Amino acid sequence: MSGASATDTAPAPTPVPASSVPVTPAMPPAGLRATARIHAVADGRGGTALPLLAGEGPLALRRTRSASGADAGVMLVGAMSAPLGGDHLTVEATAGPGARLTLASAAATLALPGRTGEPARYDVHLVLEDGASVRWLPEPLVSVRGSDLRVRTRVRLAPTARLVLREEQVLGRTGEVPGLLRSRLTVDRGGRPLLDQELACGPGAPGGWDGPAGLAGHRALGQLLVVDPAFAEDPPAAAVLGEFAAVTPLAGPAVLVTVLAADALLVRELLDEACHSYGW
């Protein structure tokens, strides 16, 4: 009689239910994700309503009163420290036909280093429909030592819309070297490009950013962009506001004010002077 083989005597393997197989969970993205959403509409009585006002995480939103009563005011209040390295914050605001919206922030935004070494992102998307008016007036952004922040601001305007947009950056706190800051602003009007500019400064930025052709040793900078259909008939003239401040008409119904200064206070003073002088 022949001997039995191993395959004849070994028991069949017991199938393992799929539900009992351990699954390695996907790693969540590093950093915080938060979005603030704002929608303004004309209320039919000469004012502006806010049917959508929703914030997440550090992006808390508060209604504010406007001096004229026609504008809807929204204050962006930081509910926690952000953005840190790896965070991605987004502000989305839409102004419907004829709506008037003023957006501001309660305090300066500090770009802080994170634990992973990844860059942080801060995106702003503004949409202005026919006859809408938006004023985006945040407090300065401070690039803290060791931070890496990428800011992207995108604006889409109807040809009849009006925009006042202010940006201010401070490179480092007092006596501190800055982090790496990369900022881009793109504005489309009526489906056509109006402005597309990019700024990079701090350790790791392209060479020359702090030289005579760049910031020339200054640690605070700002700009004010005004887009107004009225400029098509009566454009502001180019002007010099100071040694490192200028008013530049753009190829379109818009004007750009740029300022370099030793500190944020002087930047704000020069931008405010431009606003008051031209009635913006």
Automatic annotation (TrEMBL):
InterPro entries: UreD (IPR002669). Belongs to the UreD family. Its main location: cytoplasm. Residues 1-24 have a biased composition (Low complexity). Keywords: Chaperone, Cytoplasm, Nickel insertion. Residues 1-28 are annotated as: Disordered. It comes from the Bacteria. UreD, UreF and UreG form a complex that acts as a GTP-hydrolysis-dependent molecular chaperone, activating the urease apoprotein by helping to assemble the nickel containing metallocenter of UreC. The UreE protein probably delivers the nickel. This is Urease accessory protein UreD. It is found in: Cytoplasm. Required for maturation of urease via the functional incorporation of the urease nickel metallocenter.
